[in-house]
Amino acid sequence: MLLRNEGAVIKWLSQYEAIERRQLKEMINKSLASSDSFVNSMLKQSRIANLEDGYIGLDHLCKPDYKLIKAIWILIEFIKDVEPMAHYPATYPSQLFFLLGNKGYEVIVLDEGDEDLLKRVQFSSEVTYIIVLPTMEMRKSLIKINAPCIFATIDYTNAKRPKPYFYMVEKKNKEI
Q1: Angle at Cα 158 formed by Cα 51 and Cα 71, nearest 5°?
Q2: For the segment 3-60, what is each residue's pLDDT rounded down to a tens digit?
Q3: How close are the terminal C-alpha atoms of the chain, in Å?
Q4: Could you say which of 30, 99, 142, 147 would form a disulfide bridge with 123 (CB–CB 3.0 to 4.6 Å)?
């Protein structure tokens, strides 16, 4: 029988296909040293596979989805307060959905030229949307969203790990 953490890792990789090794270690929610040995143990047992460029998957055929990888960096900012099984892929064009307490969060990653994808999202006032942009300047070209939103960018200049930055927006003279 799989240990609880092993089961969670298998579930995450079956959902997300491939994620960065450093993301997996942070998602395990243990000290970095013990999570590294835990991942190494799973690799030795062939429960998971090393992929190119520091990614981990269930097998060597897995391919990372770079928008999903960005969404997982957002999730990791909240991972200590998110139950291990309370996050999963969202419906396109969103990448990820997670529960934080009793509140749902949906992460949408946009690249330059993806502005029209927001027209496909069925926004709900019950969910807070975290929209990840390459730069905050891009926000000016987006459609108006009538739902709770947080905008974010991810800074990749730190060699240790990318750092998300969050920006609140005002709606009807009220901060969301």
Answers
A1: 55
A2: 677 888 999 999 999 999 999 988 987 655 678 888 888 999 999 999 999 999 999 9
A3: 45
A4: 147
User: Which residues, in sequence order, are CB contacts of 20 under 8 Å at separation 6+?
Assistant: 54, 55, 56, 64, 69, 72
Average pLDDT, the chain: 89
The answer to whether 150 touches 128, Cβ cutoff 8 Å, is yes
Nearest residue to 45 (alpha-carbon basis) of 73, 97, 93, 10:
10
CA distance 48 to 42: 6
Q: Looking at the predicted structure, is the pLDDT value of residue 106 above 90?
A: yes
Q: 68-93 pLDDT, tens per residue?
A: 999 999 999 999 999 989 999 999 99
In whole angstroms, what is the distance from residue 90 CA to residue 107 CA?
8
Exposure string (b/e) for 61-72, b if CB count within 10 Å is 16 or more?
ebebbebbbbbb
**113 vs 34: CA distance, rounded Å:** 41
Angle made by CA atoms 8, 9, 13, in degrees to the nearest 5: 115
